[in-house]
Model the fold of this input.
Amino acid sequence: MQVSEATVKQGFKGYNNYGAWLRNKYQGQRVFKVIVDGGFTCPNRDGSKGYGGCTYCNVDSFTPSVSRKAPSLREQVVQGMERARKGNKADKFIIYFQPNTNTYAPTHYLKMMYDEALSIEPENIVGLSVGTRPDCIDAEKIALLESYTDRFDVDLEMGMESIYNDTLNQINRGCTHDDLIKALALVENSKLDICVHTIFGFPWETREMMLRYADEINRFQQIKFVKFHHLHIVEGSVMGVKYKRDPFKLFTLEEYADFLCDLLPLVRSDVVVQRLFGLSDRELLIAPNWQLKKSEIQHYIDQRIESRGIIQGSALV
Done:
């Protein structure tokens, strides 16, 4: 597969990376996500599907501490924009409802929350991103999200986590891979940009099993974005308690970078990679602790991809 000179200038890294995609889509403007906590819960926590949540999950580990301290939705948006402007010279923003399940409420309530967040400096907001579970999506909620697409780009992010029902059962996910397939069928011809989130490194899944995730992503043309995470163990999770009692094998940084180098050539080249890894706050992280900042991990992985000459989708040509 040949990479054009124009693509290289846009920031091509051997994979279709989100940063370059944003710069291209928004004509070079600096676009940043503002994470907000809408105060939602999860059907796997409140008893409708289960209690305790997924075994790897402590919701605080996926939410910056500064967002957790802001008492109102408006304050979270205003403060998030201010931080992005000061720290990253941001021009435009995507409002990102991230913690817990952000479609787990009646549709009229969701509309109230989304409307409030998008009403703050609407001239500087270009997108809405909503993280949820595939079993908390229905036609009415899809229609609500689609109603914003005439003014904003709308990204619906669903947790795939694993393609194997045995894994989903072991991690107390409370839903099956069939639930994801059904949700993807509902958005097959939607105006929404669909993102799926995966976790690599469950100790009972082999490398070959994990590489098959690519086949599942490729077969759904409605998947536009992916987030790849390695399994990390955090305080306040069931898996964290188990790990402290009986530690199990997790990816080293070198191993994970090499795994991504094997995975990316198998993934459709049009799929935009929003993330290659995840990282919780240091005070919550138990393992693996790679002793590097997020930017340093990103640089290491990008260097490994470049040194190996990896090109996303090249194995499919």
